[in-house]
Amino acid sequence: MHWTSASRMVSRENRGMRGERFIAGVARDVGRARRQFTSPPPPSPSSAPPPARHPNDVRDRNAPYADESARSMGGVTATVRHDWTKAQIAEIYTLPFHELMYRAATVHRMYWDPAEVQQCTLLSIKTGGCTEDCSYCSQSTRHKTFVKPTPTMKVQEVLEAAKRAKDAGSTRFCMGAAWRELGNKKNAFNHILDMVKGVNGMGLEVCCTLGMLNAEQAKQLKEAGLTAYNHNLDTSPEHYPNVITTRTYEDRLETIANVRDAGISVCCGGILGLGEKETDRVGLLHVLATLPEHPESVPINALVAVEGTPLGDEVAEDEEKAADDGIADVDAFDMARMIATARIVMPRTMVRLSAGRLSFSDAEQCLMFQAGANSIFNGDKLLTTDNPAFDEDTRLFDKLGFVGKPAHAGPRVAPSEVAGEVEITQVRGEEERQYA
Questions:
Q1: Which residue in 33, 204, 262, 363 is a FRET match for 16, CA 20 to 30 A apart?
Q2: Residue 384: DSSP 8-state
Q3: Active-site residue 208, yes or no?
Q4: pTM above the 0.70 mark?
Q5: Which of 120, 134, 208, 268 is the catalytic position?
Q6: Is 120 designated active site?
Q7: Is the pLDDT of residue 427 over 50?
Q8: Model confidence over 358-410: pLDDT tens digits?
Q9: Which of the residues 71, 103, 109, 174 is marked catalytic?
Q10: Residue 333: other Cβ atoms inside 10 A
């Protein structure tokens, strides 16, 4: 054999050995990469750590973010502020619908876990016989409706209703009484204090809506264990006199201040379909967003027109004219637009999808949740009007992949915040710094 031929054979053998070593090296590298980048199997539900939660008290919840000036994600920037102008809110409210929904959904995900929805139950503990002239309300003595006045429920009856609500999955129990104000109703008030203590003792959060309160009454409710107090503004200051004349807007704001000063969470929102214009919807949001503290929760209601009330009769007599006047003519886009704007201007506030849900399909309600709603009233009655039954809401939650917020537990920390996907701008004195 010539040396040249032998050298060629050795060379081929060397090349083969080098190729085998190369392939083996690649295999080792691929194995390392798989071990490095392949996620481990998810932990079993029993071993998964519970989600991080904020404190339940709204002030304790917001305190750690006092020096935060803004959050940004996905090209959207949001901030908690109290100096909104009507023009700024109107600019948001009138955005093209697709853009408004994107912004609101992004803000929602920056501050909240969109999968968690609070479930509240509302019980009328004293129905009818109210002396107010609210033109939408079936419980006023000035209107001839199907509602018959009833005395205040017994404490034990209320506690039994609260237990049924808790067993059905509700975590906040709200009690409403149809009267203008507590005033000097000492016996009734003492019974209500016992109801609050009893419901609180069952592990439920407790809310009341009892009309106007003075500072001392608010203090006693707080001491009894009241979590939140509902006192809606209904509409804008300008349109309000067209709806109610027996109580001023300032009266309502005073009650809200008394509740807030007592350390009770404020629940305050409004109703769509009262004959208001879009400027009135913006005006209502402007009042809420410029309060010294944003409400813990803002209920957005669609009017349920009741025959015998002035607004209900107008719908019954001439539905087309009533719709032209903006009475009860509320669709899913109106609700979603209002919810989305509320979510953007009050990022840390729970937005509650309230009365009128029976008018909307599951898909339409999903649109409202996507707009930023993260609380509902459940149970088959909202005071005197119909509402989806508990099992219907359970089915809806299962369909949409929602979980209920536990009682006396703060909301989950937004998963996007936990994952570091939110850019947070903090301000400390004159110094500003950003981190993701």
A1: 33
A2: T
A3: no
A4: yes
A5: 134
A6: no
A7: yes
A8: 889 999 999 999 999 999 987 544 445 555 667 888 899 999 999 999 888 89
A9: 174
A10: 14
137 is catalytic: yes
Helix then strand then coil, in percent of the chain rounded to 5, is 45, 20, 40
Nearest Cα neighbor of 303 from 283, 286, 278, 323 is 323
Q: Which of 263, 285, 281, 261 has the alpha carbon at shortest distance from 273?
A: 281
Give the tens place of pLDDT for each residue, 175-192.
Answer: 988 887 776 778 889 999
pLDDT tens, position by position, 232-250: 999 999 999 999 999 999 9
Q: Is 174 a catalytic residue?
A: yes
The chain-wide mean pLDDT, for the chain, equals 85
DSSP three-state, residue 226:
coil
Map residue 348 onto helix, strand or coil. Answer: coil
- pLDDT of 428 reads 54
**DSSP secondary structure letters along 55-112:** -SSHHHHHGGGTTEEEEEETTEEE---S---HHHHHHHHTS-HHHHHHHHHHHHHHHS
Q: Is 285 exposed, middle or buried (0-12, 13-18, 19+ CB in 10 A)?
A: buried
From the candidates 71, 103, 172, 267, give the one annotated as an active-site residue: 267
Which amino acid type is present at position 27? A
268 is catalytic: no
Q: Is pLDDT at 320 greater than 70 in this prediction?
A: yes
Residue-level pLDDT at 43: 52
| Cβ neighbours of 191 (radius 10 Å) | 18
Instruction: Determine the distance from the C-alpha atom of residue 136 to the mean position of all C-alpha atoms in its chain, rounded to a whole number.
Output: 24
Of the residues 109, 120, 137, 208, which is catalytic?
137
248 Cβ neighbours under 8 A, 6+ residues apart: none
Given the residues 252, 260, 352, 357, the one annotated as active site = 352
Helix axes 97-111, 332-345, angle to 10 degrees: 50
DSSP element (H, E) containing 26: helix 3-37
Residue-wise pLDDT for 321-338, tens only, equals 666 666 778 999 999 999
Helix (H) / strand (E) containing 176: strand 172-177
3-state secondary structure of 228: strand
Query: Choosing from 130, 208, 268, 366, which is the catalytic residue?
Result: 130
Residue 130 has pLDDT above 90, yes or no: no
Q: Is 130 a catalytic residue?
A: yes
All residues at 6 or more sequence positions from 92 whose CB lies less than 8 Å from its CB, including other chains: 100, 103, 341, 344, 345
What would the mean pLDDT of 69-92 be, rounded to a whole number? 97
pLDDT score at 324: 66
Average pLDDT over residues 287-302: 96
Q: Which of 71, 109, 172, 207 is catalytic?
A: 207
